[in-house]
Design a protein that fits this description.
Distance between the termini: 65 Å
Strand order of the largest sheet: 1-4-3-5
Radius of gyration: 22 Å
Low-confidence stretches: none
Helix content: 25-40%
CATH architecture: 2-Layer Sandwich
Largest sheet: 4 strands, mixed
Structural class: alpha+beta
CATH class: Alpha Beta
Mean pLDDT: 82
Number of helices: 7
Order of helices and strands: HHHEEHEEEHEHHEE
């Protein structure tokens, strides 16, 4: 069951609610945005008006998990921690968009920051620009929530021109420990040009898990596909042999049942 606007506002910091109310319905018409000038113009051209910069934050203790030095394996507790922390930040950003009466959030960025006062603590931040359709049509998801997208303003305009609409930012993650080589194996392979199948298989499997989880999330939204997919690899605080694989993209749906992608415009060669 969707939360009421009053419940959403109670879950946000008082300063955030005050800021959003000043630029939201009935407030002063001054918006903030992290869109570039070109992105701003193309979002306007697509029929949307920017309402304000929205953000969500979650300071999360990542914790520790034991691992075997010589065994490649997913560290499931760390995987879940990284996923949950991002979801908390995303949901709070969506709550701010809800207060503004937005149809969606474009240009979403997901960042992770670390601070000196917490070795195993990280702040997860989601930031984007809330937008609303000028013609009053609804672009919200089937669950009644604003859509989210990490597409640039240019890509957002192109997506709509192609007959597709964003549904939501989807992600999949996998924290994976890649086994160390034993001393004998390392010595035997020194100076030889060859594939290291143990490492290859471990990294391949970890990426596949992240990709599959992203696709599963898109499937639950009823998406027809995922565009702008990025595969990001980071060691974070765990050392060189433990890596997080993050797959992230924008789930999309077609705007019409009979939608056909238009053919590309032919390029006419210039006379020499």
């Amino acid at each position: 069951m969707a939360a009421s606007l009053a419940e959403v506002e109670r879950a946000l910091p008082a300063d955030a609610v005050r800021r959003l109310q000043e630029v939201g319905p009935g407030g002063r018409r001054l918006f903030t945005s992290d869109l570039s000038v070109n992105e701003f113009l193309l979002v306007e051209e697509a029929g949307f008006e920017p309402l304000g910069l929205v953000l969500g934050s979650s300071i999360y203790q990542i914790g520790l998990q034991t691992r075997r030095w010589s065994q490649s394996q997913e560290l499931e507790r760390l995987t879940q921690a990284m996923y949950t922390a991002r979801e908390l930040a995303m949901s709070r950003m969506e709550d701010e968009a809800e207060v503004l009466g937005a149809d969606g959030v474009v240009g979403v960025r997901l960042d992770v920051n670390y601070y000196e006062w917490g070795r195993q603590t990280a702040e997860f931040i989601a930031v984007g620009t809330a937008v609303r359709a000028r013609d009053g049509s609804s672009w919200r998801t089937a669950a009644g929530k604003p859509f989210t997208s990490d597409l640039s303003g240019q890509d957002f305009w192109t997506l709509l021109q192609s007959g597709f609409a964003p549904l939501g930012l989807v992600l999949g993650t996998c924290v994976y420990h890649v086994a160390h080589r034993g001393l004998g194996s390392a010595l035997a392979q020194t100076g030889r040009a060859q594939e290291l199948p143990t490492f290859t298989q471990a990294l391949y499997e970890a990426r596949e898990r992240a990709m599959t989880r992203m696709e599963d999330e898109a499937g639950r939204l009823g998406a027809e596909g995922v565009v702008g997919v990025q595969l990001v690899e980071r060691s974070h605080l765990w050392g060189s042999h433990t890596i997080e694989f993050l797959a992230i993209g924008t789930a999309v749906r077609s705007l019409r049942p009979d939608h056909v992608i238009p053919p590309p415009v032919p390029v006419v060669p210039m006379d020499r």
